[in-house]
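Box 4.2: Ligand-aware structure prediction
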Amino acid sequence: GTRIELARCTKTFPDGTRALLPFDLTINGGETLVLLGPSGCGKTTILRLIAGLEFPDAGGKITFGEDDVTRQSIEKRRVGMVFQSYALFPNMTVAENVAYGLKVQKVERRERDERVRAMLEMMHIDMLADRRIDQLSGGQRQRVALARAIALRPRVLLLDEPLTALDAKLRVKLRTEINSLLRKLGITAIYVTHDQEEAMALGDRIVVMQKGAIAQIGTPREIYRAPLSPFVADFVGASNRLDGRIEQNSLVLGDVKISLDQIGHAMTGDPIKNGDSNSNSRSGQGLADIYFRADGLAICAPDQGQIRGRVEAISYLGEKSRLTVSGIGESVITLDVDPDFQIAIGDDIHCRFNPERLTVFGRY
Ligand code: ADP
Ligand code: MG
């Protein structure tokens, strides 16, 4: 796979919208990089810059391997694209759709047929070769779109929320297939999604974006376990938040005191002042934002409890039950229990923190 590099890129649209603030980004050859972020944060704009559908502001540079493509047109770049809407030719057959780009590229007949056949087989749609696009389901259409994009042997494959329009079960199935396909073929790929689970499942690395800027780049584990900011923590699903304080080397929450050394991820330095956003300087005083998922707090026996709450709602999820609990912070907290655990709405419960699963940001 080709290494893709964007250097000192920004994007300002003619109407003055600053869609992308200055950023550098490298996608390694063969890597699947996921762009994750809320709607409007600039994900599609990055893909369009790489595709050549938009150009970066003056000063920005885009290279594919050794090749400077900054001012190159889309035709010259050899990018494959798959979007949420299929952009297939509805009245052509599946095989004709996949063959189309190869015809444009003047790939000779025999090789074209062979490549189309191989692609359809790989995407498990060989039996649909002679069907028209308008006779296919949404999932089948996305398979055709993928086959068409990959058949061209692109230097980079760009996927913009390709599974968003599909139902949940099919989404999981197709993302698993895309995952193994990209690895098998060693294609450099950039995959855009606003779904954190999809991002975790697919990405070698994830870029979390916020308002036109890169908030964090890291492996799924790094993003999940060591978010660099409250925005990232919240966006990747650490939806419980409590206010605390930091005193000496401890996190303090009402009567509860936990040594910072036990906290899974604590960022208590001032990232701007010490210039190292990964700093774990474990000192100082001040306010703290505490983030955690449903596994950050557990029900326990009354004499073991650190904090009390009241059950407001119970969702049975099969392998676990998820409780909504009030009385612990300003807003409600969610936590998980064994689905066979006897509990009812209105019950008072005693809970203990799982320090290893807490993320703490010092505020100064
Ligand atoms: P995302 O894909 O993350 O939802 P986009 O890259 O589509 O975000 O858009 C980023 C920002 O740029 C948004 O504020 C959007 O309204 C703006 N934008 C996108 N395209 C244009 C355009 N052609 N002209 C002006 N503003 C645009
Ligand atoms: Mg978009």
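In the box above, the bound molecule is magnesium ion. The radius of gyration is 24 Å.
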